[in-house]
Write a structure and sequence with these properties.
By secondary structure, the chain is of the alpha+beta class. It has two domains: 53 residues, Multidrug-efflux Transporter Regulator, Chain: A, Domain 2; 60 residues, OB fold (Dihydrolipoamide Acetyltransferase, E2P) (Beta Barrel). It has four helices and eight strands, in the order E-H-H-E-E-H-E-E-E-H-E-E. The strands form two sheets. The chain has a five-stranded antiparallel beta sheet. A three-stranded antiparallel beta sheet has the order 1-3-2. A hairpin with a 3-residue loop joins strand 4 and strand 5. The protein starts with a strand and ends with a strand. About 4% of the residues have low confidence.
Length: 132
């Protein structure tokens, strides 16, 4: 299972590390400490929290998400639906939910899993997925 530091989680959520720490202190994000004392968030927990966060209206303490450059949306994989040939991958990038339809083979080659970092690249009506 992939794990993220508070700083990495903050970047994926589109907020400052201070905001992510406040959320962890308040119990909004489940964390645990590694042997070096760093706070870590499990990828699946972060994926679930990012979906919950995006579904509610912004609150005053939330920060505006960072803008992406060249239509790249770094985020976290929140859902994967595999068919026999096709697949659907959902990425939460700050307040943005992006859905890409691609081949099952592409998902398997990238090794995509829920809770993993990935970048959605948007061109016109196409969304391409890069493993981060």
């Amino acid at each position: 299972m992939q794990q993220y530091t508070i700083g990495q989680a903050a970047r994926l959520l589109g907020v400052s590390p201070d905001t992510a720490r406040r959320w962890a202190d308040a119990g909004r994000i489940a964390t645990h400490r590694d042997s070096a004392g760093r706070r870590l968030v499990d990828g699946r927990d972060l994926a679930a929290f990012s979906v919950e966060l995006a579904a509610r209206p912004p609150q005053e303490e939330d920060e505006a998400p960072q803008t992406s450059v060249r239509n790249a949306f770094p985020g976290i994989v929140t859902a994967i639906t595999l068919g026999d040939v096709a697949a659907q991958v959902e990425i939460q990038a700050g307040p943005h939910r992006l859905v890409s339809l691609l081949t099952r083979e592409a998902v398997e080659e990238l090794g995509l899993e829920v809770g993993m970092r990935a970048t959605a690249r948007v061109k016109s009506t196409n969304v391409h997925i890069d493993r981060s």
